[in-house]
Amino acid sequence: MAEVGEIIEGCRLPVLRRNQDNEDEWPLAEILSVKDISGRKLFYVHYIDFNKRLDEWVTHERLDLKKIQFPKKEAKTPTKNGLPGSRPGSPEREVPASAQASGKTLPIPVQITLRFNLPKEREAIPGGEPDQPLSSSSCLQPNHRSTKRKVEVVSPATPVPSETAPASVFPQNGAARRAVAAQPGRKRKSNCLGTDEDSQDSSDGIPSAPRMTGSLVSDRSHDDIVTRMKNIECIELGRHRLKPWYFSPYPQELTTLPVLYLCEFCLKYGRSLKCLQRHLTKCDLRHPPGNEIYRKGTISFFEIDGRKNKSYSQNLCLLAKCFLDHKTLYYGTDPFLFYVMTEYDCKGFHIVGYFSKEKESTEDYNVACILTLPPYQRRGYGKLLIEFSYELSKVEGKTGTPEKPLSDLGLLSYRSYWSQTILEILMGLKSESGERPQITINEISEITSIKKEDVISTLQYLNLINYYKGQYILTLSEDIVDGHERAMLKRLLRIDSKCLHFTPKDWSKRGKW
Amino acid sequence: MSKLSFRARALDAAKPLPIYRGKDMPDLNDCVSINRAVPQMPTGMEKEEESEHHLQRAISAQQVFREKKESMVIPVPEAESNVNYYNRLYKGEFKQPKQFIHIQPFNLDNEQPDYDMDSEDETLLNRLNRKMEIKPLQFEIMIDRLEKASSNQLVTLQEAKLLLNEDDYLIKAVYDYWVRKRKNCRGPSLIPQIKQEKRDGSTNNDPYVAFRRRTEKMQTRKNRKNDEASYEKMLKLRREFSRAITILEMIKRREKTKRELLHLTLEVVEKRYHLGDYGGEILNEVKISRSEKELYATPATLHNGNHHKVQECKTKHPHHLSLKEEASDVVRQKKKYPKKPKAEALITSQQPTPETLPVINKSDIKQYDFHSSDEDEFPQVLSPVSEPEEENDPDGPCAFRRRAGCQYYAPRLDQANHSCENSELADLDKLRYRHCLTTLTVPRRCIGFARRRIGRGGRVIMDRISTEHDPVLKQIDPEMLNSFSSSSQTIDFSSNFSRTNASSKHCENRLSLSEILSNIRSCRLQCFQPRLLNLQDSDSEECTSRKPGQTVNNKRVSAASVALLNTSKNGISGGITEEQFQTHQQQLVQMQRQQLAQLQQKQQSQHSSQQTHPKAQGSSTSDCMSKTLDSASAHFAASAVVSAPVPSRSEVAKEQNTGHNNINGVVQPSGTSKTLYSTNMALSSSPGISAVQLVRTVGHTTTNHLIPALCTSSPQTLPMNNSCLTNAVHLNNVSVVSPVNVHINTRTSAPSPTALKLATVAASMDRVPKVTPSSAISSIARENHEPERLGLNGIAETTVAMEVT
Fold this sequence. Notes:
Chain A: This is Histone acetyltransferase KAT5. Chain A: Residues 69-106, 122-220 are annotated as: Disordered. Chain A: The active site is at residue 403. Chain A: It is an enzyme of class 2 (transferase). Chain A is globular and about 80 Å long. Among the domains of chain A are: 263-405, 3-Layer(aba) Sandwich (Aminopeptidase); 407-493, Winged helix-like DNA-binding domain superfamily/Winged helix DNA-binding domain (Arc Repressor Mutant, subunit A), CATH 1.10.10.10. With 513 residues, chain A is of the alpha+beta class. Chain A is built from 16 helices and 20 strands. Chain A has helices at 72-75, 96-102, 108-115, 120-124, 132-150, 164-169, 172-190, 195-202, 225-228, 273-282, 310-321, 381-396, 408-428, 441-448, 452-461, 478-490; strands at 12-14, 17-18, 24-25, 28-37, 40-47, 56-59, 235-237, 240-242, 260-262, 269-270, 291-296, 299-305, 336-345, 348-358, 365-367, 370-372, 401-402, 438-439, 465-468, 471-476. In chain A, helix 12 packs across helix 13. In chain A, the strands form six sheets. Chain A has a five-stranded antiparallel sheet, sandwiched between helices. Chain A has a four-stranded antiparallel sheet with strand order 1-4-5-6, covered by helices on one side. In chain B, 61% of the residues lie in helices and 3% in strands. Chain B has a four-stranded antiparallel sheet. The longest helix of chain B is centred in the first third of the chain and has 59 residues, at 217-275. Chains A and B meet through helix 3, strand 8, strand 10, helix 10 and strand 11 of A and strand 1, helix 1, helix 2, helix 3 and helix 5 of B.
């Protein structure tokens, strides 16, 4: 049993969490940061194998200190932190597998996790090698993160031989600093920068800027501890209070506020309700500051040019970044168009979601970032956004695909949309003159504007493609058909292409965006 | 899934996929696993995240239940949607316009202060309001201006006063408040702003810096690349266009030549018609000319497009002749011209026997068929007879291959000419043309029969051949025998001569070996020397005979006697040009030297020749003419003014000069197209001269000599000049003919039947066009010649053009 004071960044331990079913779980989590607010320690935890969006600040009461695993290096530097020799052995941290084997400490989800092809490191562990694999597996993630953090040049993929190496090589202090300070360093950097971190950061050398096309980053080499942690606690937007999921580069002085107030229409951020009030006296927008290109019922779409309306575009991006992990705001918004979906009521056109789109995409992207604001999620708006994006592609006469990487929710949404769209076509095919209906993948792609690869992956995902009598066939099984029909019954929100008033522009002829 | 017994084909996106539904769906066990055939598409997610627990759970749930269950949804942080003061905050209502909202750009920039007052400011405002009235907006504007005026450094009060158009007290109050608040502010500004990037790059990794400018380097580089590529493409395009232009020009030239040929053909047909030559008898009669015709035919074929081949054909002819005698020659020729063998075969087969004549005629006729392709061309030019020969003469691996960038010279017409001269004498010609009794100046001796040719680098090579006469010849002292003609060749000539001139000496020479010496003395001597004059003369004769070949028939028919010859000659004389004379003279001059002495002594005709000389040539009074002009001819020539091919004895250099002079004198009166060919002449003459200097021929230069001289000279002349030579030859012909007119040429004058025949043929060929009065003939002759010349020139040009391209 460790003391609360001993808990440092990099430690892993089960943390109490309430799941959707309102059940308490104790998934394994890693301490990413520790802060002291008026004498009360708060721990920023990342639940292993959970999405970052669930990371949160917790009090020590939710930590299962009995199962704490310290970063391995730390074991050798107990004295530095005044850690008692009571933890002489390097942290015998429980790996999910071993924990599972050993008992019920770990919540069910983790077990489920194991079922679904976890990374190898984790699978290897049940093999039962006590020390090495354990330590390596347990330390791998923190270490790999620390590697990223400290020497960002080193790619995360680089296998860092288990921490023994640095631990043994470095003098205790150094090791401690590397391991212990490394993780605190994250915090320190965000708060007051430690010298150690500074030097490390500066050693990055030439900063490599992300690619200039697209709006997503798959390269996480710059993903330091600051961006790993949510920095905005709460955002008030119209009637809604949003809990951001990820870091967003709002002005740093605003990150300490309990609530960030946004104007619902122009998305300007203010530090207080009073500010917002004042702002609203000056802001007469009641809809996104762009041209309405689609309206059906209460749903409207507005097109905003990232170059012509910078402040709104930037504000939108800042807000969106709170919910999009891979979105980068590194570069300006000039090369993008923003399509904001709104829902109208008597107060105005309220933003529901949006997607951005490169004016010129070299890779057939028809969507860069896409987001349904959390209050509107799981109500079909996401699919509506996706449908609209393909509707634009149809008008342009192109096929398109969303920019990668997809998020988990993005993948699910797109798969769902693709599945429903393709199934809709397949089931709508009438057999002509008694012959079996048939269709090519290219035809599906043309009809739907879904890129060919996505069509294939969807057919595969649905397991529709089979090889029969020397040729490929599409098989629509009963439950596929039933499932689709049920899903379509629920899908009430549809884009009506007749309501779209959109003329694609040839941006290549405009010189600059 | 059944085990994969074979590899399924790759999934083809363009191939229709039949859709099976419900009941008629085949048992999936019959279906083959396609895992390998259809590559698994990436999900598009980050690897790490893809394995996240909730996602996997959701995916599996979806796959199992075909729809999401509430509990299987990916959890997200909660959001509240119950801001109770919302209605108070967002006052008023907004009515949805009927039209789509279209925003005006300028609407976006309403000048409102970015600064939003907060509650702290409000207290200040309330306090200030006690003393003076200040509205929130006014306050915000003030703060806004202060903020925007100061970056890192705060504006001073003085500056603030300038900045703010307000009461001093108010300014002071607000300013002080602002400074205080600013100091307490953690941010860089009271107006929260997104961190800007710094130009020094220090903020490149600052996570709070956003919306950096894009440097657009990449695009420019891309463009530059494109420019380069497109530039190269344009260059290529231009190159190809210019090539197309060249080709078109060449086609144009070819078509022009075709047209000319057509006209000529027409003319021939007309002539034949007028002569009543329906059965082609006249054509057949002109056996002699056929070889010549062939030569001419080649130009015709040229029009068809393959100039090279035509040239090859020409060159082949001489080779045929030499074939039997010299293997070396043949070999050499083969190397040079891969297609020779065919032509050679043709000619050889044809020439010896009169039977071949018809064949030749056919080929002549065929000439006028225009063939577009090279392949077609040859078979027609070469009669079928040639085929077996070809087989005998396979080029094999040694076949000549035209080399790119290499310029091949035009064929040597001089050689060809020889072969063409007299069809009857074909056999003799072989020897004659090829080999002459040759003497060397250094060492001074007679080497017997030899042939000259130019080797690489312009070296003169003597191809010697053994004859029965060798032992006799060895005894010959070159000096003693100034004019010593090769046995066979001289014999031929002599025969001609004898016929024409009715001189018994020639006959003697040819028949008896022992009489060689005497023959030599009697001007039967064959010169090996490259006498241009002689060469050209002979050439000219040949040429003339050839060219008019077709017309010859006509002429022949009409004119069987000397009279004809005279007329024709007269006509010819009229056609003489400067160049013709020059070449003529050059050739003759050398011969003259040697001949004169002997001729004068022996021949009766000396006087006549002398007489003619003064007339024709101012400078050279030598008697050389006597030889060329037999007694009979001399008599005939009495009336003739023509300068004739009378060469003076003067030495080469002199001869040239004199020759020129003479020529000028003579030509001018008659001169028609002097200038045209002067250049050609000059070219041809110069090598000839040099050759002459190198080798001295012993032989006489009678008319007979002309031919051998030609033979010898031709090889000597540089290939470069070949084309020129041909022209010169033509000219020479004219000139040669002209003397004939006057004096009755050696040939023509000859009473002997064969000689007469030959002469007539030659004459007819030359002047074929006109049997009528000399003047008329001459004009026609010119006409005839000119197109031919043009054709030749054209050929030369075209060949060059071809190779250049």
